[in-house]
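To whoever picks this up:

The parser on our side crashed when reading a file containing two proteins. I've narrowed it down to the boundary between the first structure block and the second sequence. Both blocks are reproduced below exactly, byte for byte. First block:
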Amino acid sequence: MSRLVLFLVFIISLALFSCQQKPPAPNPPTPVNLSTVSSKSVLYYDNYPATTQALSQVDLHAQVTGYITGIYFTEGTHVSKGQKLYAIDERLYQAAYDQAAANVKVAEGNQVQAQQDADRYQYLIQHNAVAKQTLDHAVIALENSKSQVAAARQALKTAATNLTYSIITAPFDGTIGFSQVKMGNLVNSGSTLLNTISTDNPMAVDFLINEAQLGQFRKLQTQKQHEVDSLFTIELPSHTVYSQLGRISVIDRAVDPQTGTIRIRLVFPNNAQELRAGMSCVVRVHNLEQTPQIVIPSRAIVEQMGEYFVYIAKDTIIRRGADSAAAKNEADTAKGPHLAAIQVKVETGETIGANTIIKSGLNDGDRIVVDGIQTLHDGSPITTANRQGPAAGGRGGR
């Protein structure tokens, strides 16, 4: 019996001994590169998606009916005000004009005859040589002939206008597009679109701003002189910066209540015809803020579900109490300063090359992790020993 008890005690002791596990070895600190945050003056551009617009644009329609007999321009080129663009068969309108001119001469001749009759009867009535009724009829005939002359002259004006409409000219200087009709096509008055012409110099550029920025842009509109010459520039679809500078032309009358935005229009010289209506571009507004700002490498920023974070290096705090032995053991195994990566939320601003402006979340003197953030989490131990080279790529996860 005693042997059985001793055997059971041995088994139980063995089981208890086997259940005792050594504490896991502490995670080794992650080697990182640190950078100290400091504010400095920066020059940068606020970017806004934009579209080029013509200041004036007109659809050319036929105002008389007939066949196209002439096209006198090259599509897609610059045309001048009054330049002849299209000709519509004018033979019918020329004939109508000639007929109206002849009718004017007939009416004027009838008026001369009626005037002579009225004058003659007026003389005879003074000598009682003709009935007064005859004079009255002569006067009425004279008035009718005058009205007929006026009507004939108005008909001549109408015929002259229609004849003029058979020649379509450019209403202003601008660029003309593709012709919608060809030689010999029949066009109808008021319904047939011939072409579209739009002004090309200067060229407008429209973009939207948040209503909170309205005061800033109104100040820029009224300010005549700017310390920065390149206040308004645009980046073309080719990713090159347009050589000419712009100015604010119009601020829209109202804010869109659904989006909280308002439209701004800039105008740019376009002597070389580099800008075409409808182009997508980016308006670059030179920021005139003189207050020093915090700028950090973009690769130090981590995006998580639409929010942005940075790891700050903090000295570790050795906790007392139940965990003091484990903390001391971890501290004893580390060499040099005892640092931990603490995750903080930041508000980002404009990106300037490989750097990003931080609007809030960091202070001067903070030490941030700029390399080695891929394996970090909040509270990870870090070390600056055995620094690694800068990570390839830009902002983490952004």
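<<boundary where parser fails>>
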Amino acid sequence: MMSCIPVLAQDSSTFSLKKCVDIAFENNLQVKQSNLQLERSGILLNQARSNRLPDLLADINHGLNQGRSIDPFTNSYINQEIFYGQYGLGTNVVLFNGGQLKNLVKQNRQNEEAGKMDVQQSKDNLMLNVLLAYLQVLNNEEQLHQSQNQLVLTKKQVERLTQLNNEGSIIPAQLYELKGQQANDELAVVNNSNAVETAKLALCQLMNIPYNKNMKVEQVSASDYATKYLADPESIYQQALEFIASVKAADLRTRSAASAVKVSRGAFYPQVSFGANIYTNYSNAAQSQLFLNTTQVESGDFVTVGTDKLPVITTRNNYLTQKIGYTDQFKNNYNTSFGLNVRVPIFNRNTAKNNLLLSKNTLRNNEYILETTRIQLKQSIEQAALNMTAAYDKYTLLLQQVSDFDAAFRIADVRYKAGVSTQVDYLIAKNNSDRTAINLILAKYDYIFRTKILDYYQNKLNLQ
């Protein structure tokens, strides 16, 4: 198992372009923030859908009244301490409100779709930045390799001249001039090595991972710059309109604003709703009278019969007073109600009118944003196509220039070694060859990046 560790470490430090982009997507905080905004839009959409459902509210109220108050059982005034309870259950559902609920759902659905496009656009922007940083690493590595080859060649010449100088075959100035060239080549190696590490650092920062000096990036395919890229800006623009996230997001927000206008217009219509309620209550003062019997008792009045006063007898019903239990009151006091409610807006201090005007203003602004986004997209594609063509022309020109200067340097090298040309001619030829080789590397990766940009606009960017 110990022998596997170096292999795993080596594999983990090798990055393809796709791996870099995937890591950046996973770690980038802006992408995560965009996902949070999308989650918020989804919650608002769910709430807009739920607004169409009936509500159900329960009301429970317990209290203690002291002194003169109304008995909730008999609705009569009573002067005693009363413990009471009231219970209610009600529901209400909107049947019609000018289409506001329906259009609010539509508006929030379009906002959620726009949020998805925002997430995609943030990923696209990050992907292009990672692509540029990735190619910059490759560009700097190739320049480093080129400068190292130049240094090797210069060192061989210095070794040759050192031997000739020791033999007294050349003047010392020739050796020192070439040693100065060697120092320049060594400086170029140092600068390019630092540039490679700087590019790696920038790539790691985009991926939001710790800097790894040992990281390696895979080379891109040679087919990416072997042939001329055929691009028609107008056709690319028409394709880009179908999938570029920023354009689709602007279009969806324009549609959402149009739905918001309908929501605001619905405030001018009556609102029809249906409601139903169930209610019961309890009071510890509630009493019931239980019939016991009937008895004959003197009423307190008298009648005179002759000289006698005889008492008047009356019939009296006898009752037993007892408190009504909690369960019995809960059942006996039960009542229900339902009704249809119509609210007609007559005057609301111009709130509905001004909200409608604001919604229309937002719609016009979103239309301008959409048009501006489309114009900017078209201009970006035209500029990208122009840059690609210029990069290709520069690359093909430098290919020929490199071939010519390489041939000139080979001839100058042979002539210099044969002693039929000066060291100045040799150094001029070498510097021309080195400079054009570096320029070719720069032009090559510039052309690759320009073609990748156009691939992105056509939804055919391959990260493999």
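After patching the parser it read the second block fine. Strands lie at 14-15, 55-65, 68-70, 77-79, 82-96, 216-217, 271-283, 287-305, 308-323, 335-343. Confidence is low (pLDDT under 50) at residues 1-11.
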